[in-house]
Amino acid sequence: MEYLARLKPAELAMIGAWWESYAHPHQIEPAANKGAPWTTWLMLGGRGAGKTRAGAEWVRALALNNPRARIALVGETDHDVREVMIEGVSGLLSVHAPDERPAWTPTRGRLEWGNGAVAQAFSADVLDSLRGPQFSHAWLDELAKWKRGEDVFDQLQFGLRLGRRPRQLITTTPRPSALIKRLIADPATAVTHAATQANAFNLAPAFLDTVLARYGGTRLGRQEIEGLVVDERADALWSRALIEQCRVNEAPANLRRVVVAVDPPVSRGKNADSCGLVAAGISEEGTIYVLADETCAGLSPQGWARRAIALWRRLDADALVVEVNQGGDLVTAIVGEVDGSVPVTPVRAFRGKYLRAEPVAHKFEQGRAWLAGTFPQLEDEMCDFGPDGLSAGRSPDRLDAMVWAVAALSFGAKHQPRIRAM
Prior knowledge:
By secondary structure, the chain is α/β, with parallel strands linked by helices.
């Protein structure tokens, strides 16, 4: 430190530009993965482990050494891309020397280097923005947090088609999503990992002491500090093993009754909660089958109502079971505006989410409720739902809708006749 204090600004800048000299091992681009070139570099790390700096340095090296580079920068929201990935303390603009820094046009979300390389900013909230553009490389930040992670990731893969070997870097604090686990298992993925403590030199000592004292050894700490994929909660109502025991390829054809349950979002706008949309049916023997999860995000009330009605028609369901705690009569009125012929069964919650979900979980444990197919995002919520809700603090929209559907068939519709939609 004394040596660095004696250096001139120009000399410090030279050292700062020599990233490989002080980068941590997990921040260095991996070599070939078991002899084969990797397509995805998955960097898993705790909070403050240096993921953003590594991502920015990776993009910087690509752009300065490849005039034809076309790079996608994808974050959870527009704000995250701009304030963290580009303009942040460890972002792209900060890691460049003044004479090599790209021109940044915020209104276009576009970075342009003097040699012709280009990077474009995208928000994971806007799925359609990735339709059309094509890239040679991509940097995806905090993928595990994205509300529509699977859909956005899939859309980006179609655009990674330029150059001889398109590649992508994913920097994220891990969560046990189906996508993260699939990427880890993919032979084309190279994984590096680090806990928060690996970057302790660049973090305030008080921060490290505080978070370790408060969260060390907890499930949240293993995820957010150690950067580990914690597959399921010990206190969750469902386990992965239970779900696999309660899975069939398809439901019987002679279901006595089918309902589509809707858990409408409380807020509106691009950052609103998703609209839970799950269908289930009950057999003549009284066994319940979850048939579909078409939970949607970013739609207007009329939009999710149309989506729910389309599912109702496709499954020839009997009714829409709609939670009305927040919207009351307005929620049922919205469905009526789209199609007044749809029978709506309003339901109101008088107990907390966990207490409502417990009897439904017992149905699965007793072999009286089954998943007819695979529902990765719904299953993630089921295995992450404990007494305090989801570990990320978000609303369990898919799970709520499933609970309403199973409950309606189990406790509210046992003796009602099968009514076919006209």
